[in-house]
Amino acid sequence: MTTYKPKRIHPEWERIEAFVKDACSLAAPNTAYTASLLLTVTSAFALWCVAEQGWPLQADVVFSRQAIDMYCTQVNPDRSEGTRRNYRAILMRVSEVVAPEEHPDTMTPLARKRIAEPYTSSQMAKFSHWALGQTTAEKRRRAMLMLILCAGAGLKSSDVSTIYPDDITVDNLGISIRVHGSNPRIVPLLRPWEEWMVAILDQVPHDLPVWGTPNRTLDGKLLSSFTQYTVGQRPRGDRLRATWIVTHLSAGTRVNELMRALGVDKFENLPRYLAYVNALDHDSYRAQLRGEASL
Fold it and tell me: Which helix (H) or strand (E) holds 27?
């Protein structure tokens, strides 16, 4: 533990090094975590507290439940729920040892089955500018495709690299996309994205995926691997997919047809998506249910 140094040395590391190592040394005998994991997580957290928040280097401040709560719920929102829960558990274990008096408040729950938050219409408009503002033609095309396939057809990152030009049908009913894999299906593309899709099809060869040859083999990380090298505020694939779902629910798409397009047999998170669907006004509510009741 005494020889540990972060992979990237921060200018503040020398000032907080002894503080971090002392805290981890005290906590280590009372945890099942390795010294390396304790030091890695605690070092990043302490640097955030001191360097970014400007808080004093005191155990009751740095290892307060409020500080840990803020760090685990607000910093690096791209982290998975599992990662954030692990970080919280590690930091709380250290806190219980070095600041036992700092545990009066209820922590913000980290839901185990929380959905990705859909984007607003204004955010989506900014992402259109983000896509068109990339620095190379290939990045612009891939950024456009990310929006088309995720926000326009609800595809997952793992689906994106599997789509070939021959999988895309353009006819008088619009554009539909044939998805392969474990849940093969046909997904109609939302109308606002059709113009971009036609433009993309004019640019790509027919013997390669529309995305092009991926730079990595883990298709589930395809989009995040791409966006980290783009300029501007970048979107997340899972939130674009959530936006597509909420768009359909808001438009009144039948749930069984939406499930068909999603390639799922169960829609366990439906109530969480419905929370983002605006309620109808009184007259519209009456008119819709009056029409539904007619046989």
Answer: helix 13-27
CATH of domain 121-290: 1.10.443.10
Q: How confident is the model at residue 30 (pLDDT cuts 50, 70, 90)?
A: confident
Task: Give, in degrees to the nearest 5, the angle at Cα 166 between 132 and 172.
Answer: 80
Q: Is the pLDDT of residue 110 over 90?
A: no
**CA 280 – CA 242 distance, rounded (Å):** 21
Q: Residue 263's pLDDT is what?
A: 92
What does pLDDT average to over the chain?
88
Q: Report in angstroms the alpha-carbon separations of 268 from 40, 109, 139, 265, 277.
A: 36, 20, 35, 10, 16
Measured between alpha carbons, how far is 7 from 19 in angstroms, rounded to an integer? Answer: 18
Q: State the DSSP string of 207-273.
A: TS-TT-S-SSS-GGGHHHHHHTTSSSS---HHHHHHHHHHHHHHHT--HHHHHHHHT-S--TTHHHH
For residues 240 and 147, the answer to whether their CB atoms sit within 8 Å is yes
Q: Please write the tens of the pLDDT for every residue from 219-233.
A: 568 898 899 999 999
pLDDT recorded at residue 4: 81
Which one, of 38, 206, 155, lies nearest residue 145 by Cα? Answer: 155
Nearest CA-CA partner of 5 in 21, 28, 27:
21
Q: How far apart are CA 56 and CA 79, in angstroms?
A: 26
Residues 248 and 183: beta-carbon distance below 8 Å:
no
Rounded to a whole number of angstroms, the distance between the first and last alpha carbons of the chain is 74
